[in-house]
């Protein structure tokens, strides 16, 4: 009945070592108020000096999303009062941003892709931080973050569901990580997202009234906040009401959005060109140098992995989304020469373990060489899927040599048909009732009943019997 319309404004903290208009350091986690200079505080008599690194990063991002790089862009003052902005204005770009229209491709779960247009991306400085949880009844101000470069990436209102919004955000995240222009750490605020949400009757071409959910700080919360907000707006319309344009906050504990300020209270920022800064002029050679320094990007890497390792479009999409995971997979695949098997293990056991322990691949205890050794032992039939899992678990707890683990735990797969036959005979004689049932059943039922016997044999062999051989011997002995 209703269709959701979503546009995202993503703020990315650029990983320059110094600030966008001053030489103060940008490192995260320093003692409060030790990293803001007179320029960051906008003291009278000081002048901002643009940091070329920030421009290089913005241009690289623009090139990566196939955007128009604006050769002349302008810094404006966005005026507002807030305690964490002592100079009373933020330097941003309003009418002439550095990056013009571009596009990204998102993949939805079923492998289906969509192109989402990016309206613009502009450079600006971050504000300081208000600290509410350190002093009782008093808000502290930490200005270390003031002047840290941000790239704000604005999408067209073309996303149609919370899941699409998350897919879009993940593509942006992936691109900035490949470009190495930000650590993209949402928990530390290096990447923040404002979600603009409206709904309209399906088929309508007119945009509905939107609300903006500010500063959502994880992929999961983006999905939940948008879903919650869509439900809230539908309820309002169903009850005959109308949505009020306002800024809202998402409360993850209550899973609800709450009003922050309405349009009537909205600031008039009185943007005007910053008189302390000249227009930024970027020449062709700067753009071409940036282009020459672009790394292989996720889409290109995906195509290469499909061709080189013979993996599916979907698998390649999941693997390349995270640059470190993609590197890990490629190393396993290259050492072992087993692309498909490597993809199965990385997407299965490795990702499951990362999710469960909430860690990243860079801190994963099993090295690509170890995993590759494991794959080789599966390939040469030393291990079956069950014993391979046992070895994998041993690697996780810090054991380091695959062959030593196999030897110490006595995991070599039993392929000797004589030994398997002996176990099969035992199982048949110990389960005469089931055997009689099996023999009386139709062949359709028999294939279902076989699992029971296979299970018994595997158990007696302590998981070491070769499952194909067990199946084969059982079927012939049971008939
Ligand atoms: P502002 O500057 O007031 O924040 P913009 O027009 O620049 O507004 O839009 C900001 C974001 O809101 C963009 O990502 C845009 O796609 C999105 N947006 C605009 N209108 C709507 C709407 N009706 N529904 C959902 N998103 C919208
Ligand atoms: Mg906005």
Q: CA-to-CA gap between the ends?
A: 58 Å
- Report the uncertain regions: none
* DSSP helix fraction: 40-55%
Bound molecules: adenosine-5'-diphosphate, magnesium ion
Largest sheet: 8 strands, mixed
Provide the gyration radius in Å.
29 Å
Round the mean pLDDT to the nearest integer and report it: 93
Report the count of strand segments.
Answer: 15
The strand line-up of the biggest sheet is 5-6-9-1-10-11-12-13
Assembly level: single chain
SSE sequence, one letter per element: EHEEEEEEEEHEEHEEEEHHHHHHHHHHHH
User: What would you call the shape?
Assistant: elongated
- The DSSP helix count reads 15
Task: Give the strand content.
Answer: 15-25%
Query: What structural class should be given to the helix and strand makeup?
Result: alpha+beta
Protein described:
The protein is an alpha+beta fold and 479 residues long. The protein is 41% helix and 20% strand. The protein contains 15 helices and 15 strands. It has helices at residues 52-64, 162-179, 219-238, 284-292, 298-309, 313-321, 323-336, 339-357, 368-379, 385-396, 402-408, 417-430, 432-440, 443-460, 467-478, and strands spanning 2-13, 72-73, 76-79, 89-92, 102-107, 113-125, 129-135, 138-142, 149-155, 191-201, 211-216, 246-251, 256-262, 272-273, 280-281. An eight-stranded mixed sheet has the order 5-6-9-1-10-11-12-13. Strands 4-3-14 form a three-stranded antiparallel sheet, with no helix packed on it. A hairpin with a 2-residue loop joins strand 7 (129-135) and strand 8 (138-142). Helix 2 (162-179) runs antiparallel to helix 3 (219-238) and helix 12 (417-430) crosses helix 15 (467-478). The longest helix has 20 residues, at 219-238. The radius of gyration is 29 Å and the shape is elongated. The mean pLDDT is 93. Bound molecules: adenosine-5'-diphosphate and magnesium ion. Residues 9, 194, 212 line the site of magnesium ion. Magnesium ion (MG) binds next to loops.
